[in-house]
Amino acid sequence: RKAAFAALRDLPPETKDGHRVTLMVNAGLRDDVAALDLTGADGIGLFRTEFQFLVSATLPQRERQQRLYREVLEAAGDRPVIFRTVDIGGDKALPYLTVESEGEENPAMGWRALRLALERDGLMKAQARALLEAAAGRTLQVMFPMVSEAWEFEEARALFDAQRDWLAARGKRLPQDIRFGAMLEVPALAEQLDLLLPHIDFLSIGTNDLTQFLFAADRANPKLAERYDWLSASILRFIRRATEEAHAAGVPVAVCGEMGGRPLEALALIAIGVDRLSITPAAVGPVKAMIRSLDRAAATGELAALLANPPRDLRGTLEAWAVAQGI
Ligand code: PEP
Ligand code: MG
User: Fold this and answer.
1) How many CA atoms lie within 13 A of 15 on its CB side?
2) Closest ligand to Cα 256
3) Residue 317 alpha carbon to ligand 1 centre in Å
């Protein structure tokens, strides 16, 4: 099967009825970019910039951040890279930045990601500048983690704009184009999509955190790992509604959580309209094989029926359908 997946490397992730899915990989290290050539993926849909911070004993200085981002962009060539600003704090605590987050009872719901970055804006400014400089002459794509209200996106975006203006005023070379996205992983944001969508170029759904917050089930607790299924009516209806709303505003939707790396889950996501998946590199072969054997229109019909009247065992029902379809 491994050889069969390798043979798929240069074939497009296109369904039998001609629907082209964008299949990207998640990364966090300079060397992860090699996965693009190995898998034939369309780009990096989630570059977790906090990795560099987590492996460092001291706060990575702007020059070091910039070097990493430039190396990643150069190695990716023409393929797009979406950098996510740091998702640190909470359980991804840094020894040099813990003081205020120490002793939080619920770190996953705590002072992390954008919440921390907007307050510690020195950190965010340095990262914004590093990204803008690294992408000089290219397209820069940035997304923000844990956006909970639309104004948080706007504040983060304004911080980038100010850094861009600062560089421009000094005659520095800027990115040719800058695109901004928001992660949808805090359920509350779904109730403000009308406020957010006019301001973003893409939406990326983080199903790891989204699932934990929708079900109130700690993603790191092994006792709960089996209890709630990604293929549940709640999750799929949530994602479908957000996707429909985004599409109505002309905004493309990605899923960048682990959910998208499982073929049956990926099938459901594509059936409900998700445009792009960003997944772990090892999943590209299996997911592409599924896509190429899928009749998307039929899957959309099946999902609509399942979500209109969800069976208790949605997974089992969908799996039986997929098998009957020869997927
Ligand atoms: C997610 O929450 O689904 C996600 C992609 O981000 P992370 O796993 O880094 O929290
Ligand atoms: Mg997350």
Assistant:
1) 20
2) 1
3) 28
Q: What residues line ligand 1, using a CB cutoff of 6 Å?
A: 46, 48, 87, 185, 206-209, 256-257
Find the 173 Cα to ligand 1 centroid distance in Å.
32
Which ligand lies nearest to the CA atom of residue 206 in the structure?
A: 1
163-194, pLDDT tens digit by residue? 999 999 999 999 999 999 999 999 999 999 99
Say whether 187 sits in a helix, a strand or coil: helix
Ligand 1 atom closest to residue 208's alpha carbon, by position in its atom list: 3
Q: Which residue, by CA, sits nearest to atom 1 of ligand 1?
A: 206
Burial of 250 (0-12, 13-18, 19+ CB in 10 A): exposed
Name the amino acid, one letter, at 235.
I
Q: Alpha carbon of 53 to those of 45, 143, 201: distances in Å?
A: 20, 17, 27
Distances (CA, A) of 237 to 104, 232, 242, 280: 32, 8, 9, 24
Counting atoms of ligand 1 from 1, which one is nearest the CA of 207?
3
Return the closest-CA partner of residue 89 out of 97, 79, 81. 97
> pLDDT confidence of 93, banded at 50, 70, 90?
confident
Measure the CA–CA gap between 73 and 223, rounded to whole angstroms.
40
Q: Give the ligand 1 atom nearest the CA of 204.
A: 5
Residue 170 — φ and ψ, nearest 5°? -100, 10
Helix (H, G, I), strand (E, B) or coil at 25: strand
Structural contact between residues 190 and 241, judged by C-beta atoms closer than 8 angstroms: yes
Compute the mean pLDDT over every residue in the chain, rounded to the nearest whole number.
Answer: 95
For the full predicted model, state whether its pTM sits above 0.90.
yes
Closest among 125, 130, 121, 114 to 175, alpha carbons compared: 130
Closest CA to 38 of 284, 288, 292, 290: 284
Q: Which ligand is nearest to the CA of 255?
A: 1
| Atom number, ligand 1, closest to the C-alpha of residue 257 | 3
Report d(CA 139, CA 78) in Å as an integer: 10
